[in-house]
Amino acid sequence: MERELLLLGLLRRSDMHGYQLHEFIERNMSTCTDLKKSAAYYLLEQMEGRGWVRVSGELAEGKRPPRRIYTITEAGEAAYQQLLRENLAQAHTSVFPGNVGLAFLSDIALDEAIALLRQRRAALQAQADAVAHAPPHAGSLQYLIDHQRHHLHSELAWLEQVLNDLEQRLKGDLT
Amino acid sequence: MERELLLLGLLRRSDMHGYQLHEFIERNMSTCTDLKKSAAYYLLEQMEGRGWVRVSGELAEGKRPPRRIYTITEAGEAAYQQLLRENLAQAHTSVFPGNVGLAFLSDIALDEAIALLRQRRAALQAQADAVAHAPPHAGSLQYLIDHQRHHLHSELAWLEQVLNDLEQRLKGDLT
DNA sequence: AATTGACTAGTCAGTTTTGACTATTCCAAT
DNA sequence: ATTGGAATAGTCAAAACTGACTAGTCAATT
Predict the structure, then answer these.
(1) What is the mean pLDDT of chain B?
(2) The domain made up of B2-89 is a member of CATH 1.10.10.10
(3) Is the model's pLDDT at B141 over the cut of 80?
(4) Are A94 and B131 in contact (CB under 8 A)?
(5) How far apart are the C-alpha atoms of A63 and A80, rounded to whole Å?
(6) How far is the CA of B68 from the C1' of C10 (A)?
(7) For residue range B74-98, what is the model confidence (pLDDT) as tens digits?
(8) Distance separating alpha carbons of residues A124 and A159, to the nearest angstrom
């Protein structure tokens, strides 16, 4: 339900059509979801079915395809209030598919593993730098950026630990 | 491709059937993926199509349904080597759908937000305790547990920061 | 000896998600 | 003025995923 919470939260601020919603999310909330354009449209149709949103105007400017402008309904507002509280109170467990490789580290030579993880560290550092230089956001959106920053630093620290461990082992092997 | 890397990595150690694979993953690698049983079967069929694995015996013990035992092929081994290296070298960006609510914090009263986030903190703490008391795992699997531990601590520290921030603001409002 | 509930093993219909596509407008450079 | 690329707005078939189900075995309980 996180995705619908997201859409409802944005529609509460102002009526929008699918493209606008997707655009805003991609630009400002990419740390929270990787919602694709077509998924956004799908969810909007779904929520319309549930009566959470209503399609208001379908003006066709020029020869463009008509834009469906979504408005949140009272039922939608109620769902929003509920979903928001649930979301804030719960600790959602995160999974890290990117780390599966770590489980198979012993399948490759120590020195190659170290080289590969150093590449990973560089890429991670690049991400951290990008977030560090990101322009500040308005209001509570800033929390998302802060969280990402915090998370990336934590990941870097952990990777450093793993690398140290492996480097120690490499030394041990050679002597 | 992380899921297929995972399956290949396990099939390399020993031949298995779908149920076994899913069981092992659920028990030991839940921090890396939430692969459902049916998804596992789907991926295995797919990988069979690509020639990465081969179905070997289909013994039917008693009146049980026949078990399809999967074996990794040479093509599968090649894919594994490639996927493992890619996985280790890349820094996979993680998204946190559980945090969308934070973006809408300003939609509810400060004191209620604080109460809700304290609930979240308690739940998070419970998760951290569970990982802390988890029995140690063999070999590189331990890295996954360590990472989860590290991550949960980082999340707790961040949440503490947010709570402090909000509590400060609450004080400011009252005076 | 029959019932219950857990464990093993897998299937399948229906839902959700995706990538690739269409089609128009705007704008900048050739 | 026109060509080409970005931005706008959305559709659709195909791929991926899920929950709910079947069905047998085993062990304990009643």
Answers:
(1) 94
(2) yes
(3) yes
(4) no
(5) 35
(6) 10
(7) 999 999 999 999 999 999 999 999 9
(8) 9
Report d(CA A82, CA B95) in Å as an integer.
23
Residue A99 burial by Cβ neighbours in a 10 Å radius (0-12, 13-18, 19+): buried
Q: How far is the CA of B42 from the C1' of D26 (A)?
A: 29
List chain B residues with CB under 8 Å of A95.
30-34
pLDDT, tens digit (0-9, with 9 covering 90-100), for A47-84: 999 999 999 877 666 666 678 999 999 999 999 999 99
Tokens of B44: 């295995």
Flag if A88 and B101 touch (Cβ within 8 Å).
Answer: yes
By CB atoms closer than 10 A (0-12, 13-18, 19+), residue B109 is exposed
Pairwise CA distance, residues B18 & B35, whole Å: 12
CA distance B58 to chain A (A): 28
Give the C-alpha separation, B163 to B161, whole Å.
5
- Among B104, B154, B162, the residue to mutate for chain A (most A Cβ within 10 A): B104
Question: Strand D contacts (CB < 7 A) among B residues 18-77?
Answer: 34-39, 42-43, 46, 62-65
